[in-house]
Amino acid sequence: MLGYVTIGTNDLARAGTYYDTFAAEFGYKRVMENERVIAWGNPATGQLGVIAAKPADGAAASVGNGMMVAFSAKDRAHVDRLYATARALGCPCEGPPGERFPGFYAGYWRDLDGNKLNAFVMGPAAAG
After folding, report:
1. C-alpha closest to that of 32 among 53, 56, 55, 59
2. Integer CA distances (angstroms), 126 to 1, 29, 90, 93, 115, in order
3. 33-86 pLDDT, tens per residue?
4. Whole-structure pTM value
């Protein structure tokens, strides 16, 4: 249903480095860039994923209360890896990976601008 999400930033270079790491986890790379915006997507399909942008009105970017962006992970190990990567990059924890509801596994953090993010997967844990 969603085409892409735009996340506000006050430091585009820092956001670019941060989201480069996550985009690579999904096989995405930078597809558009200027002095105010960096967009990541899949150049083969034309699909966009995340855009980091300085606000168009010139005001400081701020975090939306109750707003969160969720990344659809491949499996629980991918959730764990995305969460660990975020923490290694200095992102604050908003809830370590775990099952929140039966069949809903997610980990939560804030990016370096304070935007709330998560990685999740739906379905039962693999038998092991």
Report:
1. 53
2. 27, 30, 30, 25, 31
3. 999 999 999 989 988 899 999 998 999 999 887 889 999 999 999 999 999 999
4. 0.85
- Phi and psi at residue 80, in whole multiples of 5°? -60, -40
pLDDT tens per residue, range 22-31: 999 999 999 9
Domains 1-55 and 68-128 share a fold: yes
Domain positions in the chain are: 1-55, 68-128
The rounded radius of gyration (Å) of the Cα atoms in the chain is 15
Helix (H) or strand (E) holding 81: helix 76-88
Hey, what CATH class is 68-128 in?
alpha beta
Strands ordered across the beta sheet of 93-101? 68-72, 116-122, 104-110, 93-101
* Overall CATH class of domain 1-55: alpha beta
| 3-state secondary structure (DSSP) of residue 97 | strand
Is residue 113 within 8 A of residue 63, CB to CB? The reply is yes
